[in-house]
Amino acid sequence: ELLAGQPLPASQLESAILPARVRDYAPALLDELITRGEVVWWGAGELPGGDGWICLAPVDLAPLLLPDAPEPADLLGARIVALLGERGARFLREIAEELSRDALVPEVEVAKSLRALAWAGLVTNDTWEPMRAGAGRRSARSARPMRARGRRSGLGRPRPDVPSGGRWSLLPARDASATARQLATLETLLDRNGILTREAVANAGFPGGFAAAYRVLNALEEAGRCRRVYALEGLGAAQFALPGATDLLRSLAPRDQGSATVRTLAAADPAQPYGALLPWPVAATRPSRAAGAWVTLGETGPLIYLARGRKSLTTWASDALPEAAESLAHTLAGQSTTIQRIDGTVIGEIAADDSRVQALVGAGFAQTPSGLRLRR
Question: Cβ contacts of residue 88 below 8 Å, gap of 6+?
Answer without folding.
Answer: 169
